[in-house]
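Appendix B. Chain record.
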Amino acid sequence: MTACAIEGETAGATATVEPLPEEPDEPGEPAAAVTGDDASGDDLPGGAPQSEPPTPAGLPGPPPFTITADGSYAARLTAAPRAPGEERAWYPERWTLDGPEPYAVPLPLNQPEEPDSDVVPLADGRVLIRRLVAGRHAFSLLYPTGPGTGELPLGAVECTGLTLLPPSPDGANVFALVAGEHSTAVWLVAGGAHGPEHVAEVQGHCSGGVWLDRAGRLLALDRQLPGGGPVKAVAVDLERGGEVTPLLQIAPESNDRLLLADADSGLLLIRSDAPGHDRLGWGVLGSCLPVRFPECLRPADVAVTPFAVQPGQMLMPESCAVALRIDGAAGSWAGVWRPAGRRLHQLAVPEGWQAGSGFWSRDGVLHLPYANAATPCSVALLEAPPDEDECCRSAPDRPAGSGAEPSAAPALPVVCKPVPLGQAPLLGRTPPG
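Structure tokens predicted for this chain:
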């Protein structure tokens, strides 16, 4: 495979480099609070962010809401109405998202599901469910059949810990990670010919899971080698017996994790402590440019996590709109950012948003699924705010605290020679003349 630019110029070779920040400030400086337009509500339709209140400490949060890679279906566990004092009865629910209007189909069986069960939708409309039964992780496919629910048992994996990976881009397979003492196994738990299949064994403890291609062959995992050391993202080729290639190596002792990847543009969203503490950054798969850590992606007093990248921007990573979940004292809301725009737009979300869930259309419309007492199944459509006006304004003309990164005074563009990652300094880089 083509190694990520932050490995150096040679595919598969790992280079020790330092990250290049977007601003000349010291990486350890406190982030400026997002004020002005970004905090006043001008970017928030309807004013302040709206969301469900945070889950009280000690109580489990809502089950995950999972969407297929193509945005056609989603699935979650939901609870049936109950009388005061009764236990919650959980059952799977499938959402159809690619029709003229979204709708939900309940998939209950003869008895309620445990709240720690996992569900993953497939592109054909079936839903995989993982249940923990007598120390074994049992898998079945659920599907609507007339007035009831059909179930196709697939088999089980006996292990102590198992984590389902995000839906495969092909829509037909579901994979899982099983952590061992010195290695991590990759299992195909749905889509195999004879039930769950062991497909790869990766040395070290692996977590995360991001698909790097459209075929569901190249999987990025965050790996820590046996004996400790930093966490580094690696690429695993599932069609070559789990062959491992280094993917992220920003600094020798930094923890470099991959959060999202877009196969069309090559845009990578990264979390690394190479600048001195955990920062959200971006790079491009196959590029020779260094990873950047935008200041606008670390607003004060909130946590920012990317969850969706706009597809279809072939070879245009800087134009991709990225959707981010923003968690603060007021709850959870959404943000939109583009590498080229260098501004974090904060957006209000509908009540009952399935926080951290959503997908982009190719033309830049963000789909946010939500459910509340008035609307049991719906999707809010939000257009990505433009960045052109902010990019064209010089720093003295931009409102203070707008959330955008400062730009230089208007000047003729400078054509810069790409700097190999092994030669990219952390601070004080000046473009060659």
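Further analysis of this model is presented in Appendix C.
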